[in-house]
Write a structure and sequence with these properties.
Chain B: It is found in: Cell membrane. The complex is a heterodimer of chains A (217) and B (243). With 217 residues, chain A is mostly helical. Chain A is built from 8 helices and no strands. Chain A has a single domain (1-215), classed as MetI-like fold (Orthogonal Bundle). Chain B has a 6-stranded mixed sheet with strand order 6-7-8-3-9-10, with helices on both faces. Chain B has a 4-stranded antiparallel sheet with strand order 2-1-4-5, covered by helices on one side. The longest helix of chain B is centred in the C-terminal third of the chain and has 16 residues, at 169-184. Classes of the chains: A mainly alpha (217), B alpha/beta (243).
């Protein structure tokens, strides 16, 4: 135990650099996946055949490819097509795209859960499609969407570790580098696990808060 | 003001409107009665473009109703709708529900809309409920907010789709008395209803619809008191004397 505390004091500053990157990757890909997911979902419920078909196809393709392959593709293959990304850019883009499929399905479920009468009432006072979405449907759908959204945040935090496979020195990779150079596997990986847990707990509490609020009418 | 000429409408293979021709004059109150599934609500929904129709013509003050044309927005601001299940926006207060259309569709200044919204809520007897959200209101109160929301658009006519059918019996009266006052003030109204007393006392004309056609129409008292058609007689007997 004593050696664990000594290792902690020694390695924590290095691991904190990894935490910073983990947070950047998580927040970046969360924002991107939210934006893309909302676009796919709105295309899906637009009632326009081409858009909704395109969105359904895209979602299936994205869902069918492992995140790690998507990351390899963006980082190692895209340069051959003239698009060179830094490892961090590729990580945010890859995770953002991968998670946009799940976000889209979540948003769509929330939108479709809103009573059709709400849309009709909005139309009856002369609102167009976009205004109906913005003023009537989306504000109500948010309540339904937030609990699963919180779960996606937790999953993204953990899946940000996949960015290590394309050399982003986030928490998991930092841990691996320290462990392989010091052989202090137990201390290092226990520390890494605890740090992920520490970051997850506020998110877990947030999900619980969302769920409670969604339960109230 | 509202003209329907030979309107046909099918849902899949089921033809629900089989050539409806009718008109509503300015200031007139027309009640549409008939058995459920006869196409009453569909007529209202076609008039403000919530449903499309397959053939025939519907015009509002001369403008043809086409739910896919940009002109539908202006028609909807002229012809408001009150729904059976109120369809208030639950995430907004009563007052916000009322000013939603004026502020966000008609782009009225917010302060003026708020002032008028409060006056409208007072008119339907709910001045003190302005800041309350719809789920905290009774059905009858919600429906009166919905009527205030329809009035806020300063429409030329209001369509009522079974406005009291979802209400507990003791709450029906408040809603009907608000509607009666509107009729007295000269509002053009088309009301799909099962309230025969309201139809008899308030309506200028009654249309009896069955099987997608207008079976009988005329002044309210003559259709309801001396129906000519066997189907109208049978319907009224069952509605007025269910036992």
């Amino acid at each position: 135990m004593q050696s664990f505390w000594r290792d902690t004091i020694e390695f924590l500053p290095i691991l904190m650099n990894g935490v910073a990157l983990t947070i950047i990757v998580t927040i970046g890909s969360l924002l991107l996946s939210t934006l893309l997911g909302l676009i796919w979902a709105l295309m899906r419920v637009s009632g326009i055949g081409v858009l909704s078909g395109l969105s359904a196809g895209l979602i299936n393709v994205i869902r069918g490819i492992p995140i790690i392959v998507l990351l390899f593709y963006l980082y190692f293959v895209m340069p051959e097509f003239g698009l060179t990304l830094t490892a961090l850019q590729a990580a945010i883009l890859g995770l953002g795209i991968a998670y946009s499929a799940y976000q889209a399905e979540n948003f769509r479920a929330g939108i479709e859960a809103i009573d059709k009468g709400q849309v009709e009432a909005a139309q009856a006072i002369g609102m167009g499609w976009w205004q109906t979405m913005r003023r009537v449907v989306l504000p109500q759908a948010i309540k339904i969407v937030l609990p699963p959204y919180g779960n996606v945040m937790i999953m993204m935090l953990k899946d940000s570790s996949q960015a290590s496979t394309i050399t982003v020195a986030e928490l998991a990779l930092q841990g691996k580098l320290i462990a392989s150079s010091t052989f202090k596997n137990t201390s290092v990986f226990t520390l890494v696990a605890l740090m992920y847990l520490t970051m997850s707990i506020p998110l877990i509490l947030l999900v619980r808060h969302f769920e409670k609020r969604a339960g109230q009418k | 003001m509202i003209e329907l000429s030979n309107v046909h409408k099918s849902f899949g293979k089921v033809e629900v409107l089989k050539g409806i021709t009718a008109s509503v004059e300015k200031g007139e109150v027309v009640c549409i009665i008939g058995p459920s599934g006869s196409g009453k609500s569909t007529i209202l929904r076609c008039i403000n473009g919530l449903e499309s129709y397959d053939s025939g013509d519907i015009t509002v003050e001369g403008a043809r109703v086409d739910r896919n044309a940009p002109s539908i927005v202006s028609i909807r601001t002229q012809v408001s709708m009150v729904f059976q299940r109120f369809n208030l926006f639950p995430h907004r207060t009563a007052l916000e529900n009322v000013i939603e259309g004026p502020v966000y569709v008609k782009k009225e200044p917010r302060a003026a809309a708020l002032e008028r919204g409060r006056a409208l809520l007072a008119q339907v007897g709910l001045a003190e409920k302005a800041e309350v959200h719809p789920p905290q209101l009774s059905g009858g109160q919600q429906q009166r907010v919905a009527i205030a929301r329809a009035l806020a658009m300063q429409p030329k006519a209001i369509l009522f789709d079974e406005p009291t059918s979802a209400l507990d019996p003791e709450l029906v009266g408040d809603v009907l008395s608000v509607m009666r006052k509107l009729a007295d003030d000269g509002m053009t109204m088309v009301v799909v209803t099962h309230e025969m007393g309201f139809a008899r006392d308030v309506a200028d004309r009654v249309l009896f619809i069955d099987g997608g056609v207008i079976v009988e129409q005329g002044p309210a008292k003559s259709v309801l008191n001396q129906p000519q058609h066997a189907r109208t007689q049978d319907f009224l007997r069952r509605v007025l004397h269910p036992l």
